[in-house]
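Sequence, please.
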């Protein structure tokens, strides 16, 4: 009986120290949920090296890359999801990534009115794309539409209300303060 107790205690100690830590996917998900996006990406990369066919991981990485503004890389991952599982529902995300990429390109070409139209089209697919609201706010700043820019930054803060320490929330808050001081 004492011998069995020692085995159970030893096994319990082993599991406590070695078996209970979250997997890289779980850690990545936790970081992503708290908008610690670069840390999430690091964990997802570790998990991807171990299993490059995990469709949920690939989908999560693609979504994360959208928020990090790596649109072409996100599209590649969504395409991989479709190769691995042709009926996997990523077409909407792939379309959003493509539109975000087009909007980003329009911004870099200083075609802010075109970018505004693109971001408004994205919102027809999904109103909760934080990065699209942020980029749209900067488009409005570029065309000197301060009220619309403030409105978009407020939307960023609303969407990230549970994560006030996130970089994007802080940027939105600072931009609203800067714009209201003018």
């Amino acid at each position: 009986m004492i011998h069995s107790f020692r085995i159970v205690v030893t096994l319990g100690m082993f599991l406590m120290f070695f078996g209970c830590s979250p997997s890289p996917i779980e850690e990545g998900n936790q970081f992503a949920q708290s908008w610690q996006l670069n840390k999430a990406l690091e964990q997802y990369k570790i998990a991807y090296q171990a299993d490059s066919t995990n469709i949920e991981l690939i989908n999560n990485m693609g979504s994360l890359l959208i928020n990090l503004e790596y649109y072409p890389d996100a599209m590649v991952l969504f395409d991989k999801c479709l190769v691995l599982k042709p009926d996997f529902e990523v077409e909407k995300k792939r379309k959003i990534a493509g539109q975000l990429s087009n909007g980003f390109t329009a911004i870099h070409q200083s075609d802010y009115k075109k970018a505004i139209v693109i971001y408004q089209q994205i919102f027809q697919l999904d109103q909760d794309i934080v990065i699209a609201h942020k980029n749209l706010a900067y488009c409005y700043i570029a065309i000197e539409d301060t009220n619309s820019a403030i409105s978009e930054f407020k939307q960023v803060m609303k969407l990230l209300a549970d994560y006030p320490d996130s970089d994007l929330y802080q940027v939105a808050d600072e931009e609203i303060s800067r714009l209201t001081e003018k």
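Residues 1-96 form a domain with the Serine Threonine Protein Phosphatase 5, Tetratricopeptide repeat fold (CATH 1.25.40.10).
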